[in-house]
Amino acid sequence: MLTVKKDDVLLLLKSFKYSLEADGFSNSDLNFIDIASEKIKNNYTIRTEVNVVYQNFFTLNLIEKKSLSKETKELLYQLKKYQIQVVFGLKSTTL
Question: Helix, strand or coil for residue 92?
Answer without folding.
Answer: strand
